Amino acid sequence: MNDWKTIVLSMRDNAQEKGITHQEIADKAGMKRENVTLLFGLKRPPTLTTLCRVADAIGVTVQAD
User: Fold this and answer.
1) Rounded to whole angstroms, what are the CA distances from 62 to 32, 50, 59?
2) What is the pLDDT of residues 44-63, one digit of tens each?
3) I need a surface site. Which of 21, 36, 37, 64 has the fewest CB within 10 A?
4) What's the DSSP call for residue 63?
5) CATH number at residue 42
6) Model pTM?
């Protein structure tokens, strides 16, 4: 699996565990809900900026090893 997919799946799982909706993430990240859905559905690779905005909206950090 691609690294970005692993990161996005982890973020998606975190959001689900916290009960955060796609709309709430979109509102906090300044995105459209549809784009959050596409991201979490692994339909398109995100930019680093998008990853950071979504991570902030969920309350998690993204870091490179």
Assistant:
1) 21, 11, 10
2) 899 999 999 999 999 999 87
3) 64
4) -
5) 1.10.260
6) 0.89
